[in-house]
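Support case: user asked for a sample of complex input and structure output to validate their parser. Sending the pair below.
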Amino acid sequence: MLSFLCPWILTIVIFLPLVGMLALFFVPKDRDDLARHSTLALAVIEFLASLLIFKWFKINDEFQMRLAIEWISGFGINYHVGVDGISLFLVLLTTFLTVIVALAAYSGVKERVREYLMMMLLLETGMVGTFLALNMFLFYVFWELMLIPMYFLIGVWGGERKIYAAIKFFIYTMVGSLLMLVAILAMVWIYKEQNGQISFEYIHLLNIKLSLKAQLLMFGAFALAFAIKVPMFPFHTWLPDAHVEAPTGGSVILAGVLLKMGTYGFLRFAIPFFPDAVIKMVPYMMTLAAIGIIYGALVSMVQPDLKKLVAFSSVSHLGFVMLGMFALTSIGIQGSVLQMVNHGLSTGALFLLVGVIYERRHTRLISDFGGLSKVMPVYGAVFMIIMLSSVGLPGLNGFVGEFLILVGTFTSHVHPWMKAFAVISTTGVIFAAVYLLWMYQRVMFGPVKHPENEKLEDLSRRELVMFLLILVFVFWIGIYPKTFTKRMEPAVNKVVERVVPAHLRSASASGVLPGGIKVHEEGRR
Amino acid sequence: MNLALPDFGSILPLLILTGTALVVLIMDLFLDEKMKFINGLVVLLGFAIALVSMYWIQDYEVPAFGGFFIMDRLSIFFNMLFCLIGGMTVLLSYNYLKIEGIDRGEYYVLLLIATVGMMLLASAGNLVMVFLGLETMSIPVYVLAGFRKKRAEGAEAALKYFLIGAFAAGFLLYGMALVYAATGTLDIGKIASAVPTSKPLFLVGVGLIIIGLGFKVSAVPFHMWTPDVYQGAPTPITAYMSVGVKAAGFAILIRLFNVAFSGEMVTANTREVLWVLSVVTMTLGNIVALTQTNLKRMLAYSSIAHAGYLLAALVPGTRESFASILYYLVAYALMNLGAFGCIILTAWKGHEGDEIDDFRGMGWEKPVMGVVLSIFMFSLAGIPPTAGFLGKFFVFSSIIKSKFYWLAVLGILNSVVSVYYYLRVTVVLYMEPKETTVHPDDRSVFARGPFVAGALFACAALVLIIGIWPYYFYSAALRAMIYIIP
């Protein structure tokens, strides 16, 4: 019925929020609820539009629904967008979380509501554009465009040290991304020397031939940009500051989508562009990922502040994503992409849950709570499911992702130490259980120690809808991940085939586990 | 030398501006205090006609006046830019002059003559003409810098600028003399092909010319005058100097390095010099800008940093790199004029409004100005999708194309440093609570300064438009470099 939209759908999904943002200018300043309603309506339409992408998506390894329009001629810069199995779910995650954030804005934001929602919509355009761009210049523009709204979200609506956090976030990201720009430009000119034609097209630049040394240098530039965004272990220090100071909605988007920009960047650009360098760098990246997993978990354990705890748990979870990705097996990378979505859902929900009690009590310290499950039984139940999905309980989404990642790592042949990395990282799952369950126990169980907590209201109907929406996907991915994995598998296999030389490829790269069990049929149960 | 009528055709825009200057000079005598705004309108009209006239003189793309004056596409590009800058400066000036009580016709006359000087500089075909253009530009600007003569800062600015300017002119002239001694010609087109009788003599001459022009574009270590003069001059003139004089300086640097000093012998020796000069310039500018609390001073150091990026684009000396300078100068002119325009809007009698703290909470109080100033700051910082980003993109792209990777990396790291102080302005605008100082004039920006607001709007719109569709300007810049008359 709507198929005439097919070639334009990606463009519509990218720019619809921008149009909505400009339309919000015309909402009178004091009509906060009008702004909230219209943003929510727009976010829902946007999500439905992105479901059309899902509907029209064909299971193959090509970029689909592509649209290319010449932009800066003479420089090979085009407006070129397309979707494949890797970006599909990240786009859906983005549009979905924006609906959630629009719902959360009803109680979470009290001041300058209109401007807050405008920034959210601008951010959505930047995020979706980054995932769909197939031209390096376009990608870079969207990548930087995201910074501005996030900077204002933290800086204007944030907590006490908001300015420090906002500037730190901005500058950290800029350092990496500008060095990436140098690498992109270098690639473009080298491509021109080799092929006589200037092009910023992703698909063209994949054909570039580079010496190992050049690959290592450029991989370094790309990896720095993405590692800061992920954040990987030594570059993570901006994250707790940004998260703690950001408003709830900002934290949800930051953890849910912005961090995925880094991991997506590795998978889409850094790994396929520089295959030889990647194979050389595998042990180092795996080490950093494993350190991130354990370090993030250990630091989480001792946090007195709920939001900081969730923030550091992100470092740990993103460590898993990186681990699965640099295992360079089909299963590992599929798990890694799935875990990006999982982390967006679970951690996003955790930030929302922290936001719920913060709005009621204006504190986030674990020691200020206790016995909440008696006062807020529904809240307690939702919190438990989300918390268990983050721990990785079988049947919920987190388990599937982590399991695939660990299997993928264990069966990888790209480096002799892979099994050791898998074993070490598995302890991260145990630590996750420790810090999350312990946190849950201290907040929810025991006697109600503080009299202020005795009269806390349970979830409102709006909040319940918000969490139920998330829970649908938590169970869906947990019980039937095939909906997701079968769509990403061809694109993931393409990356693996491109990067890993045949003799290092493990059997699972072709979709079969050791022992001949077909992954799709048996491996996911 | 015989003068032919077509020769006058090629200086048509300069004649128009000079004519306007004479008209204003006489007309001013007959205007009473309330009618002074007519001066501004006439000058604006003059700039507009000169701008439009540039479309016709493209037929005169031959050297005129015996090769002294060249109206090729490079000069046309720059002359159009100067008309744009001049026109914007007039729009920015009107309110400010009234507030400061210096609303006199001479101001506009000097502005016009300085612009004519810039045009002469951009179209010079002979080193003598370079010197003439430079002085025609500089002397009115010295006077304009001290136009608020009752203020100590104004006098300081004018004197400092004049003394250092005279010093720089000495370097330049000495350099020209040495180049003449070595090659026997002052014609820019002939210097490249001339075989110098003495190589050191020639190179020292080139070096002295670089120093002389380095003062004008405020390259480190010849930048000492910049912050004081920028702070002391009337704000519209600061805006005019920071973009106009810099653009004129680069216009002649481009012509010299593309034509006169394009020989292998010169470039082999100047490349490292320019490399070091550019890195030192941008680094010092950015680092000192970090600590400024006065917006005019901050923009002064930022203009030093931008001079560094532009000098970096001189290093490769390719057609693309020169074209990227042209594009960058357009972008820089728009965003800097805009930033200074915002300072003018916050001024009232006896209050310059140029401390960064004056902007506290302004983003919420005056939303339009907040957005516009943020656009300029993000553009200066080089964040897409603004003209400032595309400018840096083209500059670094051309540098990387010629494989000066370290220069590109240093430039990029520098622009990360610069992000901090540009963001500082947006922090003050939106994120820091307002103190109790009340602006005595709480009308909207449009009511307070309709002309300034119009100029700001135009600048902001152009910054976004040429940031999103840069092709028109970039290809014009590229054509200017392709059809340059040797």
